[in-house]
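Project standup — Tuesday

K.O.: blocked on the structure for the chain from last sprint. Re-posting the sequence here as requested.
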Amino acid sequence: MSEIGILKIEKRENPNSRTSKKLRKEGYLPGSISGKGKDSVSVSVKAEDLKKGLSQYGRNALFKLTMKDDTVTGMVKDIQVSPVKGNILHVDFQQVSLNEEIRADLTIVLKGADTLEFKKLMPLRQLDVITVKGLPQHIPDDVVIDVSDIDKVENVYLKDVKFPEGIVPEGDPEQIVISIVETKRTSASSDEDEDETENEGEELL
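H.V.: unblocked you, prediction finished:
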């Protein structure tokens, strides 16, 4: 079972843009907690605590969300980031049960991609994330695909990807995740372009 972090949160009584702006100036983030069959609850969390928690436990980590009169188990469902400054503006938590499966999007991490360069090959991603289902305590942050042993043009399908025990991918097993293609040879064409440029220069003299 994954280690569970702890985040102290507070309920917000009057959530609006003005109070959200004030919270951010004070080092807190506006947020919400949603749960199956429950109304969403507006909350706030210290920005530094959230960043440390995600850094220590991971993007899909479980947290004990402690409030003055209640404690729930949850995960970070969504993070809104400023497109200009890149800072976090809002965080949404999802209340979960350790006995109920959930869906999550896993980022794809390529292992051994550098070895493909020596074989004049390169990987092309056909998917940005892979959606999986499993108990929340078993959900990893990402899925690793090892391409170091590939030595020819071929595709890596969803059915070829290895997942941790208890984690099941959703989607077509024949979906292409990574395409391994040949690298284009640009050196010869570059030399030809240089020769043409030199010849043109000689004609102008």
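K.O.: great, moving the ticket to review. Helices lie at 17-25, 47-57, 113-117, 187-204. The first helix runs from residue 17 to 25.
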